[in-house]
Description:
The complex is a heterodimer of chains A (113) and B (111).
Chain A: E1 5-7, E2 10-13, E3 19-24, E4 31-37, E5 44-50, E6 53-56, E7 65-68, E8 75-79, E9 88-95, E10 103-104, E11 108-112
Parallel strand pairs in A: 2-11
Antiparallel strand pairs in A: 1-3, 3-8, 4-5, 4-9, 5-6, 7-8, 9-10, 9-11
Chain B: E1 4-6, E2 11-14, E3 19-25, E4 32-38, E5 45-51, E6 54-58, E7 61-66, E8 71-76, E9 85-92, E10 100-101, E11 105-110
Parallel strand pairs in B: 2-11
Antiparallel strand pairs in B: 1-3, 3-8, 4-5, 4-9, 6-7, 7-8, 9-10, 9-11
Amino acid sequence: EAGVAQSPRYKIIEKRQSVAFWCNPISGHATLYWYQQILGQGPKLLIQFQNNGVVDDSQLPKDRFSAERLKGVDSTLKIQPAKLEDSAVYLCASSPELQETQYFGPGTRLLVL
Amino acid sequence: QKEVEQDPGPLSVPEGAIVSLNCTYSNSAFQYFMWYRQYSRKGPELLMYTYSSGNKEDGRFTAQVDKSSKYISLFIRDSQPSDSATYLCAMKNTGRRALTFGSGTRLQVQP
């Protein structure tokens, strides 16, 4: 079974630029999560999708972050404009329906200069 | 106060030692408790999953949950250099499916 795929793996941008990350969850997983992991901290939830609907985006900085999950499969997370404090690893995870375990992708490491 | 507290380490032990990793939490609604292992530049990988209180064993790994003390532990027996990684505790309640993570403990097993 293929795992969660993410791209790109690394990205370096300057502040005020925009950036987008892509995630392909494990086939058949209904729930998709985006987490932000700042160096030395645990992952923090940004947004949770159930199929193509948003379940929880309470911690998403909506003035600059947006996310979508078209057709309930792939998802993209966008930051526009980026700030220095957005430097982090952005992790995508997915879980099957009615299961509590989450499976993580390798993450996208973002550096904002 | 953070919802989940975890000692960041680093914790350095010799090969073959028994390792004890711990987390405390403040939210009594948490019912599901997990331990993830994260190697450098990789995503977290699920190690152990426990519902409510009690112990669970899987090979060299044992997870314990004490809900009365709001304290969870992960024990690693016969530790190996390949166990060197950051260990994240994570937990959730029944309603919200997202996980609340600790900050992670970095473990180094010296050969």
